[in-house]
Structure formats: structure tokens, C-alpha cells
Design brief:
Protein name: Putative glycosyltransferase
InterPro entries: Exostosin, Exostosin_GT47
Keywords: Glycosyltransferase, Golgi apparatus, Membrane, Signal-anchor, Transferase, Transmembrane, Transmembrane helix
CATH class of one domain: Alpha Beta
Shape: globular
Membrane topology: Single-pass type II membrane protein
Largest sheet: 5 strands, parallel
GO molecular function: glycosyltransferase activity
Radius of gyration: 24 Å
Bound molecules: 2-acetamido-2-deoxy-beta-D-glucopyranose
Length: 489
Amino acid sequence: MRTIRSPTSGIFLTLFFLNLSFVFFTFLKDEQHLHLHHHHHHHHHLVSHVSINSSSANQSLDKHRLKNKRRSSLERIEEGLAAARASIKEAIGSRKYEKSNEKGIFVPKGPIYWNPHAFHQSHTEMMKRLKVWVYREGDPPLVHEGPVNNKYAIEGQFIDEIENGKNSRFKARHPDEAHVFFIPLSVAKVIHYVYKPRRTKYDYEADRLQHLVEDYISIVAQRYPYWNRSNGADHFLLSCHDWGPRISYGNPYLFHKMMRVLCNANTTEGFKPSRDVSIPEVLLPFGKLAPPDLSLPPRRRTILAFFAGGAHGAIRKKLLKQWKDKDDAVQVHEYLPKGQNYTKLMGKSKFCLCPSGHEVASPRVVEAIHAGCVPVILCENYTVPFGDVLDWRRFSMEIRVERIGEIKEILEGVSEKEYLEMYGNVRKVKRHFVMNRPAKPFDLMHMREMNHIIHTSFPMKDVDKNNMVDHECTSDSERVNKKEDESKD
Ligand SMILES: *[C@@H]1O[C@H](CO)[C@@H](O)[C@H](O)[C@H]1NC(C)=O
Ligand SMILES: *[C@@H]1O[C@H](CO)[C@@H](O)[C@H](O)[C@H]1NC(C)=O
Ligand SMILES: *[C@@H]1O[C@H](CO)[C@@H](O)[C@H](O)[C@H]1NC(C)=O
Ligand SMILES: *[C@@H]1O[C@H](CO)[C@@H](O)[C@H](O)[C@H]1NC(C)=O
Ligand SMILES: *[C@@H]1O[C@H](CO)[C@@H](O)[C@H](O)[C@H]1NC(C)=O
Ligand SMILES: *[C@@H]1O[C@H](CO)[C@@H](O)[C@H](O)[C@H]1NC(C)=O
């Protein structure tokens, strides 16, 4: 069993922030290296060209000047990051919350956070400093646009927020001030437009997607110095689609440093918690930012455990085989009986089962949290979102796949007191799984703090190994009306 709460999955935007410390060190080294190297070259050019063509020499000088300018912008960025790290460390040591200039801003407290002070400070630093450069190359619909509804909604919502968000304070005005660079390509849109029609086996090969991403990167790497200077380590691409992880399979070298922000944070599929970021899959009903709130208070929750969904993948098959339509307390359905309302049923259940389907991430986890239903995660090799900030044991359960047959006993074994505590924590953690437009502090888009610092200075507590199952939940297709966004599974 590996530990799920992977050390470094990050939280969204901020993720980048602290990871950067790391990136930047490497950067400066590279840059220095480059610089020296170039120096050398310049000499060469100067010597050979001056006599022949002085305008060339002038160009070299300009380049040289530019280089210096760039270097100092990197140094400025590094100084800012060093200050951010220092104040996070200090907040950890002093256990104090820095007063915010912004009124009414939420302050994280309590056991759902591994370290609320670090989280708070990291968020504060992010709000103050983080700048993201969004590459402008390319035209919609494959880039600069993504789905804003259904289960891949986060792709489009994120692109729209960062590019057009009215108060997107994170948008860099110039790439020289950016901490991170965003490649605004939506995998879901590519699958939708490029993989059509789908008739032969070839129509399911990932290479067309891979080439598109590689072409985009090669264009920006030709035009600007940013990709090359870090080998992409400060660049990221965000995808919720099942095929997201595949973007990098065709050319592992090109992508070995780039951050991938993925819903399908399947470690067996190459998700690297130290480099990539796990984000929640959120199924947005058309025109809405959340499912309807049909959540009942604990005493009116009459169902012990609830699941409805298709028999996708091995874990769900196992679950359905053992529990489908067999028990009133543990209600497991492949198809909901007519007249039943999915959201309503979640709102009157104590526990909501979130098994993997074809892929690890499932919108159920977020739906359960919205419905005040304690998520029960039945997964393997899944890095849960925001696991470096949030202590998932406080508001969710994990049951190992081998113990699916014991679900009822295990859940009945949870005392009323323990359940109420988890229920209360689900209510508290909800704000981090809520999507707002424009995004708000500590909401889903803003979650994504600390990472490296916290984890280098604060290794995760020893987690009770018995409770740990690898998280793996799947993206759920059965409730999605639009079939065209689906991958072959
Ligand atoms: C000098 O170099 C510039 C730029 O490389 C070029 O456009 C120009 O024709 C050159 N002039 C001569 C005299 O070679
Ligand atoms: C070189 O640059 C300087 C200042 O930037 C300019 O005054 C000068 O005319 C340039 N020389 C040539 C040959 O382009
Ligand atoms: C970045 O590296 C690639 C591959 O080595 C090269 O083709 C490209 O010209 C470089 N970009 C810049 C801006 O120097
Ligand atoms: C995935 O999960 C299985 C079952 O828990 C485990 O045996 C395996 O080592 C995991 N693989 C990776 C790469 O984490
Ligand atoms: C469930 O009920 C709510 C509230 O009545 C409604 O908004 C929602 O569309 C229903 N969901 C389904 C899947 O019918
Ligand atoms: C995770 O990835 C591995 C390797 O591709 C795959 O075999 C497994 O089915 C995936 N897990 C889920 C739940 O899809």
C-alpha cells in the first residue's frame, strides 16, 4: 500500500509557487551557465564581425544587454520567492497568521489542515506575488478555450479565468515577470475536434494529441527563451480529460520537467507527485458552478452508503458484483431507479462511495463534499488533490479494494461521534472544492499552496498505515450526456 496523500500533490495555482523555489535554483544555475557560454560566443562574434558588419555587432551587444536584463528579472523573481519561503517558515515557527489587508478573508484553522499556518501564509504569498504568463500563440477552439460544463469543465473554466478573468491578479503583463508559464491547450477540446469521426483503431491513438502539444511547445520555445532556459520546468498544462496523462508519452524527454496539472493523478500512469499537481474533477451542470444543494442535516440522513454508476473498470465491477441492489443500508446501483434523484440521494446518505472507474479521478468526491456526504474512496495509485495541505483522513474514509465485501461492517463500525466529526469537516473543507467566477481566495481555483517548503521542512506526519489505501477514483461517464468528449473507454 502506498501512501496516498502524496507528499507533494499541490493545490492549484499556488502549486507553482512554492515548487518554484526549486525550479528557480536550477534556473539560475542554467542561466549562469548559459550566460558564460554566450559570453564566449559573443567574443567570437564581436571579433569576427565587428570589422565586417558593425550592425551585427550592435545586435550582439543588444542581445547581451537583453540577457543581462533577463537575468536580473530572474534574480528579482528569485528574491521574491526567497522572501515568500522565509515568511512561510516564520509562520510555521511562530504559529501566527499574518494579518491580511483584504477584509473578511478566510483564515484556515483546525485539524483538516496539515499545517494551517503554513497554508495560510503560502496562500497570502501567492496572492501577493504569483504571476502566470499565458502564451498567446494559436487560435481557438483547440487553444484558449475549453469545456466549461460537464466533467472536464475545469479545463475551460481555468483557461477562461486566467485569460479573461476580470480580476485575475495572477496574469503576468510580461513574461519576464512570470513565475510560471501556462500552455493554454485543452485536451478535451482536442479530443472533441481532432478525433472525429472515430472509425478505426487509429482514431484512438494519442499521437495526434501529442504532436499538437509538441508543435505548440516548439513554437514557443523558438520564439521565446523561457522554455529552453528551464527545459519546461516552470511551464504547465492543465487537463482533466482521461487522455491528459498521455500528452507526454510520445516524447518523454521533452516533458520530463514540465508540470502537468491533472485530474487523473494515477501514479502508475506516470503521475509524479513531486512534479505534477493533482486537481479535483468537478462535474458542472450546464450553466452552473455547482450541483444543486440538497444536503440534509446528519440526523435526516437515512442511507448509510450510496453509489450509482456504470460498471467501468475493475474496482466498480467488484463493487457492483458484491453490492448491486442488494442492501438497503449500502445502496449500490448501476442505474438509478426511475424517479430517483442522484444529488438528493447523496444529500441523504452519510457516506458516498467513490470507486475508480476507467480512470482514477471521479467527480463523485467533489459531489459528495458538496452534498455533505463523507466520501469513501475506493481507489489505487491515486494522488488525492490538495493532499499536501489537507489531511484527508479527517473528512474522508478509504477502504481497500480487497475489503469491498466488508464495506457495511466498516461503515457501521464508525461511531456516531467519529461520523459527526467527519461530517463537520466535510462542511468545512467544502470551500476548497467550490468553483467561483471570478475565483476567490481559498476556493478551488486558488487552492494550491506551499508544496516544497512545507514538505522539506515538514515531512508528513506518520499516517496510520491501516487506513491508507491508494486513492483511485474514476472519471465517470455514465451521467454525462455528451458522448463526444469521451475517450475510447
Ligand atoms: C550586416 O548585418 C545585417 C544583419 O545581419 C544585414 O541585414 C546587413 O545586410 C549586413 N550588412 C553588410 C554590409 O553585410
Ligand atoms: C550601434 O548602436 C548605437 C547605439 O545603440 C547606434 O548609435 C549606432 O548607430 C549603431 N551602429 C550601427 C552601425 O548600427
Ligand atoms: C530552444 O531550443 C531549441 C532546440 O534546441 C531550438 O531549436 C530553439 O531555437 C531554442 N530557442 C531559442 C529561443 O533559442
Ligand atoms: C498501485 O497499487 C497497487 C495495489 O495497491 C500496488 O501494488 C502498486 O505497487 C501500485 N503501483 C504504483 C506505481 O504505485
Ligand atoms: C434533482 O433535484 C434537483 C432539485 O429539485 C434538480 O435541480 C436536479 O436537476 C435534479 N437532478 C436530476 C438528475 O434530476
Ligand atoms: C492507472 O494506470 C494504470 C497504468 O496505465 C492502469 O493499468 C490502471 O488501470 C489505472 N487506474 C485506473 C483506475 O484507471
